[in-house]
Structure formats: structure tokens, C-alpha cells
Amino acid sequence: MTAEPDGWVKVAAVNDVPDGEPLGVKAGEEPVLLAKVDGDILAVSNVCTHEYVLMDEGWLEDGLIECPQHGSQFDLRTGKPCGLPATHPLPVYDVRVEGEDIYVKAKG
């Protein structure tokens, strides 16, 4: 995926994000997790802040993503951890939906 001059990167189509399941994508070189929560498409880093583990291999429930390695949960709207051992939030990405296309604002 190529970033637009303003940093937005097309990462997926709306239909690519299944209800109740996280989806791992890349925004440039950045691993990003997409998820639908209450009809909204949200994006956070796909890498746990406790240990390098891909979060899209975890469980999504009630707006939280649970790390598959140690069970830390993170709020997908804020990135904040809701349980140990993680203590640092997941970076949150801005999301834009245009028609059926999902764009994420790359941080790098």
C-alpha cells in the first residue's frame, strides 16, 4: 500500500473486516489491527506493548482485544490496557472510510 502525501494509507475494504474478528494489515511498514466495534472501524497497533506478539491472533470482545500470549486486554477506542501484564497503551490510529475503502493515517 502506498501512502498518500498527507499520510493516509488504504489498508482494506470494509467487507474485509469481519464482525467479531480482528484483522491484521499494514499501513506502510506499520503493523495495524482493524476491528469493528459498535459499527465503527477502529485501528490500533497490531503489536502488544508488553512483548512482541501480534494482537490479531488474540480475541476480540466488547470493544477489547486480548493478547494471545499473556492475556492483557486493551480498549480498542483508547488503546489503554485493561489488565496486566501490559502497562503501556497500544498506539491508536486515525481511520477514514471512503465508500468501501478503509484508510489509516500512518504514524511514520
Looking at this protein, list some descriptive labels.
four-stranded antiparallel sheet; three-stranded antiparallel sheet; Rieske Iron-sulfur Protein; 10 strands; 108 residues
Contiguous helical run count: 0
The CATH topology label is Rieske Iron-sulfur Protein
The CATH architecture category equals 3-layer Sandwich
CATH superfamily: Rieske [2Fe-2S] iron-sulphur domain
Strand/helix succession: EEEEEEEEEE
Determine the strand fraction and express it as a percent band.
Answer: 35-45%
Q: Give a quick account of the main beta sheet: strands, pairing sense, barrel closure.
A: 4 strands, antiparallel
What is the alpha-carbon Rg in Å?
13 Å
Strands, total number: 10
Please indicate the count of domains: 1
Query: What is the subunit arrangement here?
Result: single chain
Helix content: under 10%
Low-confidence stretches: none
Q: How far do the termini sit from each other?
A: 14 Å
What's the CATH first level? Mainly Beta
**Class based on secondary structure composition and strand pairing:** mainly beta
User: What's the arrangement of strands in the largest beta sheet?
Assistant: 2-3-4-8
Shape: globular
What is the overall pLDDT average?
Answer: 93
